[in-house]
């Protein structure tokens, strides 16, 4: 996180307003995402621990196949919520959506949501992945946590993940338009699956499925219930992906009011210290320590060069987002 007391004048203009998110007590789902390597797990963990101070129960859920929550907390997490050490109301779990897809057939036997998915629909390409998202959201809601913080995969995977309810909604909508013309097809496909059902039964189930999907979709588009926190670092590729992410979230009508700039470097000036230390050495010591001092000067120069680059992109972030976003 940016420490305001330690940053340059430009960096001071980037305010740490993340407390506004913590104070928004209507939020149920907080998604944290951004380019790989920007520190999403660190930020999502920080948000979750802050929320745990004011909320009754908080779930921190990783959907990134390369899970890092266990490393962040020094505690092993699995696909079931586990209480985080040192907390009485913060739980964490690491879940790969592929696990849900693999388990869809078994879940359909016991889960009320998936029982409403006819076999005929499971034959549609990509439907299992879309259903896995809705199943995940339904499952999280059924556990009755006050708020769930999602530590998501890198940007491309996250955008696909968030668009799944919309994809599923369109599939169901298209199927319902065919209700009056699908009689023979229903019989054909039903004969290819385990369950036999009439056209009326099939479309009743499709309509119920559509209602459940619509509920999830509407909740995701409600800024009182759902928000997305973009995490970036002040470098070109990260800022570029952040802009892409924000635009795609806007197209999907998902609220995004928070941008957290991570890994901000502080300008340091140690040239005089290096010179003083060098001048205090004997000639013999200088001979031995020369490679070390050269490395120190090299890394000092590289560090401050990076600070200069970061200042440019911090200014870009300020210019692009200061008016419409809380930036921390």
Characterization of this structure:
With 328 residues, the protein is of the alpha/beta class. It has one domain: Rossmann fold, CATH 3.40.50. It has an eight-stranded mixed beta sheet, sandwiched between helices. Helix 9 packs antiparallel against helix 11. The N and C termini lie close together (7 Å).
Label this structure with key terms:
disordered N terminus, alpha/beta, 328 residues, eight-stranded mixed beta sheet, Arsenical pump-driving protein, Rossmann fold
Shape: elongated
- Placed side by side, the strands forming the largest sheet appear as 3-4-2-5-1-6-7-8
Main beta-sheet strand count, sense and barrel state: 8 strands, mixed
Question: What's the rounded overall pLDDT mean?
Answer: 76
Task: Please give the structural blueprint.
Elements: H1 9-12, H2 19-23, E1 29-33, H3 40-51, E2 58-62, H4 69-73, E3 82-83, E4 90-94, H5 97-102, H6 104-110, H7 119-122, H8 127-142, E5 147-151, H9 155-177, H10 183-191, H11 199-220, E6 226-232, H12 236-251, E7 258-261, H13 271-279, H14 283-321, E8 326-327
Parallel strand pairs: 1-5, 1-6, 2-4, 2-5, 6-7, 7-8
Antiparallel strand pairs: 3-4
Give a nutshell description of this structure.
By secondary structure, the protein is of the alpha/beta class.
